[in-house]
């Protein structure tokens, strides 16, 4: 069985102590830091932008996995890369020129991801599979932490697993991931678990991360 990667979503951390929180999950055994960027337009919430990412970059040597819930993301890609994003994941509904935007990310030798909302059909993957390094299946509707995992997405995770085949594309899941739903997602083929509440609401981050791994 593959070793699952754990990506704590800082959306659920104490924003007043952002640097220390990132340091803490890094020491607790995280594999990457998941950063949710929201624009109040594509999703009904606002979070943070490149200047904050620049400020927190020194607090961890782990890859920064930047989830761009932003419409459009195209004009911001260069800036996010400049401040230290390693993986940039974009939503097709927010970005009409997916091929071009994914190519732009790859051109800078960064990893390109595509995020699928719960109702997004899988045909958006047609013709761009060779251009992505990560597929992020949203297991909640994006916008907020602490929502309930949508069970119908397990079938989608299995379908994406099939589509990926032997390609080296990560299959990440995001939203409502607990030890229980995380295990279901892994059994369905997920290789990366994004989790906010399950890690940051646990007083012991290392224990929270471990419970997602086992
Ligand atoms: C939701 C975000 C998630 C969120 C997950 O729009 O993309 O990354 O932080 O939070 P939990 O794990 O609490 O569902
Ligand atoms: Zn996210």
UniProtKB/TrEMBL annotation:
Superkingdom of the source species: Bacteria
Metal-binding among keywords: yes
Record-level GO cellular component terms: cytoplasm
Active-site residue numbers: 36 (proton acceptor), 174 (proton donor)
Coiled-coil regions listed: none
Functional pathway: Carbohydrate degradation
Cofactors, names only: Co(2+); Fe(2+); a divalent metal cation; Zn(2+)
Sites where the protein binds a divalent metal cation: 34, 36, 67, 174
GO biological process: pentose catabolic process; pentose-phosphate shunt
Assigned keywords, A-Z: Carbohydrate metabolism, Cobalt, Isomerase, Manganese, Metal-binding, Zinc
Binding residue positions for substrate: 9, 67, 143-146, 174-176, 196-197
Catalytic activity: D-ribulose 5-phosphate = D-xylulose 5-phosphate
One Gene Ontology molecular-function label: metal ion binding
Entry EC number(s): 5.1.3.1
Enzyme type, top EC level: isomerase
Cofactor note: Binds 1 divalent metal cation per subunit.
Family listed: Belongs to the ribulose-phosphate 3-epimerase family.
Functional description taken from the UniProt entry: Catalyzes the reversible epimerization of D-ribulose 5-phosphate to D-xylulose 5-phosphate.
HAMAP family: RPE
PANTHER family: RIBULOSE-5-PHOSPHATE-3-EPIMERASE (PTHR11749)
Protein name: Ribulose-phosphate 3-epimerase
Organism: Caedimonas varicaedens
